[in-house]
Amino acid sequence: MNSSLPSSTSKTDSSSKQYSDYVLDLSSLIRIDLSCQWVNEFDDNHQIYKNLNQIKELNIRQNLITNWSQLWIILETYFPRLEIINVSNSRMKLDLNPSNEFIFLKEFILIDTDNDCDLYENIFKYFPNLINIHLDLNRLSFISEIFVERIKNLTNLSLSDNPTLIHWDPFINRLGILKHLQELIINNCGIETIKLINQDDSIELFPSLKYLYMSDNKICLYSSINELSRIKSLMSFSILRNPIYGLNQIENETAKQMIIARLPNLTHLNRVSISRDERRGAEIDYLQSYAQDYFDKKLDFINEHRQYQLLIEKHGEPLKPIVNQQSKKGLCIRSDLLRIIFEFGDENETKIEKKIPSSMTIAKLKTFVRRLFSSQLTNDIQFNLFVVIDKKHKELISNDYQDIQFYLGNYCLKDNIDRPSIIRIEII
Fold this sequence. Notes:
- It is a single chain.
- This protein is an alpha/beta fold.
- It has 14 helices and 16 strands.
- InterPro entries: LRR_dom_sf.
- Keywords: Leucine-rich repeat, Repeat.
- One of its GO terms (biological process) is cytoskeleton organization.
């Protein structure tokens, strides 16, 4: 079957369109979409194609073109100034090389073309100015140094759904020398660990990378997140559906806080904005969570926690943990989850009951409260938290490093141990 653009026609009926009318229409086109049209070749009607030199984007996804030589003809003869081409869902053999470079092409979409890196490194040498490449749903098993050299001007690269890629080192690390790379999408690539290679101080890996998307991989250790702190430009990171997250909401929230604290320049996690309060709460919770290791002065602690000393300079030193927290005078032993009624101090006196971990720091609690009362506590509103002792007395919750149990323990009297505690929120 041969499907192509309209051919020149001659009509005697005065009401029908003449060829000149087609020319006028074609001259205004900048994008052609022939996806899923059973196209197997392009006609050589030069009368039409000479009026298509202005075309910037061509979509020939999921057609019947079987050889790359046919694609070279399309690019060299018919669309010489093309900037974007989509040949996804195609199965083409590399039979001939082109005679020229295609200097105008900026974006190449090659999703599901069933190839490994060796073919792409041969193809991309003819496209020296590519800035955006999509190689999703292929069978990439490696990334070669030659491949990286061929795409040195790239700003955006998508490699998702190549589950045999697997290794961050050396393959993903090779992309680190791309000076202009801003966005890297590697969802569902089977990656288990992130390990940046140790380079000379004069060489910075991923110097321009702002957006990194790694959902549906197999990252399970915070040491991988620590490695990403070396990418100073990283602003947005997605890591959904990785085993680093737990099996329940509390574990998921803890993982989220630990990731935020380890990546100081991050503004978005899993495509959600990180508020100032959320970052502060995450960083303080992180400091307190590893306080024992810090005070024990373990030899490898600073290497494992690259941001810890910087966060101490920012927030101050964490509280030194007491060996047996439950033996502190005045504290009673409760289950890990505490029942708390949050009481908002306005004319409505809104009350919401929640169960939260007794180990939650006050910094994280403040973030939790701001989410709980999001309509009343916008980012520009400051507030205080109080433990309600009785109808006439309340105690200010002031130390962000302490956990909730520290403030609630003194009021866990024997006769009301099963009753919820009350925390009151008052706007400053």
